[in-house]
Amino acid sequence: MADLQEATITLPSEPASVSAARRFVTGAVTGWGLPAGSDALDTIRLIVSELTTNAVQHTFGQSPTFRVDVLLERDEELRLGVTDSHPKWPQRLPAAVRQDNGRGMVIIRSLTAHSGGRLTVKPTEDGGKTVWITLPWPARRAD
Length: 143
Fold this sequence. Notes:
Low-confidence stretches: none
Distance between the termini: 15 Å
Helix content: 25-40%
Number of helices: 4
Strand content: 25-35%
Oligomer: single chain
Strand order of the largest sheet: 1-2-3-5-4
Mean pLDDT: 89
Largest sheet: 5 strands, antiparallel
Shape: globular
Radius of gyration: 15 Å
């Protein structure tokens, strides 16, 4: 396989784009060899759902679109990035806070850590940010 495989899509910041992003990422990673029925794919899909939901819900109309980047580096590392142009970075809520929503980052952090990955947030040139999730490539572990 190539040293780097990439897939990118830009979607409008609206609720229907969350499922479109999930389908896009699913198609990319299964095309790169991740089994369709795997637990790893379920984890990736949930992370993408939470990241893109955050991009839609928490940009308050200040980011008309968001971008999803999927990169597979040397069949070793999968990177998922969601970029929006809103300046506010994700907030970590204390466990004691009881809300009907706001748990997306807790879910993302937990799934990422459980999978042996890491989460980073990087600023963009336009004042927004990209939330990156880096995971060991699950198809490699299955070999």
